[in-house]
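Folds abound. Consider this:
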Amino acid sequence: MTDLSLTLSPLTPADMPAIEKLDERAFGPGRFALSAYRLREGVNPDQNLSFVAHVGTLLVGANRMTPIACGGAPALLLGPLTVDPPFRSRGIGEALMAKSMEAARNGGHRLVILVGDEPYYRRVGFKRAPQGRLTMPGPVDPARLLYCELVEGAFEGVTGAITRA
């Protein structure tokens, strides 16, 4: 098989139909009921911080960063991070996250929140939020609520409801 190179580029509105199909294949229709989707509903992702991955001309991954607030403090919500199932375990998800996190840090953002598997996201600096410190707008497994400080100390004193920005 020919080894095709991975290209990361900023997400554009033209990418959204392909991303929606990718999300459907990866997460199914139940994704709309998740708490993180409630925060993103009706809010456009920050296109300066959100990226897509292509192998050749095929869109194989996407990561969105959406502005939110955590107890009134500005933050970003990472996700959904989606990689087409046949392309998983090839570092595409980590490459997308690293690109988004670097852009956020360079853009002066301080804090990123997500709902996901700690063992996977720990590799890029995420930690489990202390139980009860943050609340989502719906049920979420507290073990899956994670944060990453882009600036040391950014999570200090952050507590309360996670809301749309």
Remarks:
- The chain has one domain: 6-164.
